Recover the amino acids of this structure.
């Protein structure tokens, strides 16, 4: 797909994702109410995401001497939570597609989609409680605390982003974007998966804050690339409507850069466009905003910021993983940093 | 309010609700993002529900020899979860009012309301994890397991009810209603609060299944009374639009009884009414359905079923609480059974 440059990354992602999904199988067994709940549980997980989160968790655990098995239930829980987040996120954003197929709420209706994700969030706690049998009470407690912080940070990030959209906030800076993305994305996509992996791998002996900077930079770089792909990728690869973020009025780094660099007339027109409810926005206007993003080099700017973040992340990597001996898992984590910004889907 | 008949019940509810809300205060401290998240957290809890769930939990704990303090965090967690459920429930049902004021999603918009309840659900787990400091690892683990069962059962019940409405299911029996209400209401309103209270009060020595029948009968009786009040209570007392359940097409015991007892022409007209999206239903039709419910004695029928359930619950009470010595808490639990079906709000 990307030549052989990311062979280790892609193979490792695929393998650990498969293990995480297998670990989730017991929770995906068909039972009543099937049609309105349990048959829907595996739908998003089975659509084939990248599996970044379980892979970061398992690989970090192994890099610090832990077994694959010891991290599996935590990795699986994070993956299930991620899929629950996506269902509510798609509804909140009014997204039409997820991973190439219609979003959950468009298929089953809003009420059942909201409830499904609620059930998935609750069910994701089961493997974390079951950790107790193999990891003991102390680690189980610490992992649960990590997960709670993860979920509340994610909700805070969502609140900020949704609030910006609802109130049509247009005076945002890159620093606002970084803070929102730290909360919305970085904690649950990178920071906590690494922290939890290290917690398990080291049996609780490592100080976990060492991973925060490394995984924060990586997480924000990941989100910027995600937003860039939303703008430029082809539909068949990315599985979302192209420019969907513009339709949704999402405060991406590109939109924030545009608002801070366009002329006053353009800014007032963009602001008026963003003030419309989504269904009143028109394709011509979306294309016009996209054209302005090209005119003001917003995409190049965002890509450059993402690269800078990736470079910083790699510097932090050498500190965060210093005490881990060389291994494929450690190399995977190092190489995934550039994968985050060079991936095409 | 109801003379002195339920003086003990009402005073006990008020007192334990107050304690549960005080226990939640540390989680309600203002912090960022305030406007889009944390300032909204206490809104539903502060609107003054009855506090049934924390009261059942604390009173059962005390009835079996435990302290108020030992049950507080669990009782508070259940109350916060309840309020999170309400926010999603109001959205799913398209309800306009909750406790006399506009529902959360009508005030802050759907996206922020969905996210708020997600945050509240996550935050409710904190006090449960903090139990470890005072109750130890074993009880904390068992309480968490109870809570997970509680949340998943509630989601199953919601799924069934929402599915019936979405697919306009009209061939339902009382048994279907009992099963749905067991899941949607009884587990989280009565069964688990009692079980968790007993778990803490007895230090884990009681078999908890003894509470299932008692609290199941009470929980379904409670829900029937809730639905009856929705039909007949005055707006000012009940705080919801009158007949809101008919507007929403909710499968109450009254609607199920009506569908099973009206004539074929009426049934086909009711079915057509229920097939409409909510916003297309008209006041005249709602009143017509209400009139049919009167014609076929649906409300009297539902009240009679609720009374029968309350009688059964009281029989089970003597078994479930046999080993608890006489106390105000035990008397409160006994008396709350009839309160469930005689309350006027």
């Amino acid at each position: 797909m990307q030549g052989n440059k990311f062979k280790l990354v892609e193979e490792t992602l695929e393998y650990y994702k498969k293990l995480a999904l297998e670990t989730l199988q017991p929770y995906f067994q068909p039972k009543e109410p099937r049609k309105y709940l349990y048959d829907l549980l595996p739908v998003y997980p089975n659509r084939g995401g990248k599996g970044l989160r379980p892979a970061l968790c398992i690989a970090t655990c192994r890099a610090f001497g832990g077994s694959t098995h010891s991290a599996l239930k935590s990795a699986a829980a994070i993956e299930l939570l991620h899929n629950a987040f996506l269902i509510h996120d798609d509804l909140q954003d009014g997204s039409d597609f997820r991973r190439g197929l219609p979003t959950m709420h468009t298929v089953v209706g809003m009420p059942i989609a909201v409830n499904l994700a609620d059930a998935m969030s609750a069910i994701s706690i089961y493997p974390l409680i079951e950790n107790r049998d193999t990891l003991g009470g102390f680690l189980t407690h610490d992992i649960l605390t990590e997960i709670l912080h993860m979920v509340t940070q994610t909700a805070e990030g969502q609140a900020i982003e949704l609030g910006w959209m609802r109130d049509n906030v247009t005076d945002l800076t890159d620093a606002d974007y970084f803070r929102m993305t730290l909360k919305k994305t970085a904690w649950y996509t990178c920071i906590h998966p690494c922290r939890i992996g290290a917690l398990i791998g080291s049996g609780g002996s490592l100080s976990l804050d060492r991973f925060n900077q490394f995984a924060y930079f990586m997480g924000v770089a990941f989100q910027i690339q995600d937003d860039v792909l939303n703008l430029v990728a082809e539909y068949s690869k990315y599985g979302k409507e192209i420019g969907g973020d513009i339709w949704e009025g999402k405060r991406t780094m590109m939109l924030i850069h545009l608002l801070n660099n366009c002329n006053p007339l353009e800014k007032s027109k963009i602001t008026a466009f963003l003030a419309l409810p989504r269904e009143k926005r028109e394709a011509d206007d979306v294309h016009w905003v996209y054209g302005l993003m090209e005119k003001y080099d917003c995409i190049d700017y965002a890509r450059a910021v993402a690269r800078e973040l990736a470079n910083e992340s790699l510097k932090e990597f050498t500190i965060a993983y210093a005490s881990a001996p060389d291994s494929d898992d450690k190399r995977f984590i190092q190489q995934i940093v550039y994968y985050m910004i060079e991936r095409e889907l």
Observations:
- Chain B has a mean pLDDT of 95.
- Chain B has one domain: 7-342.
- Residues 7-342 of chain B form a domain with the Farnesyl Diphosphate Synthase fold (CATH 1.10.600.10).
- The longest strand of chain B covers residues 97-98.
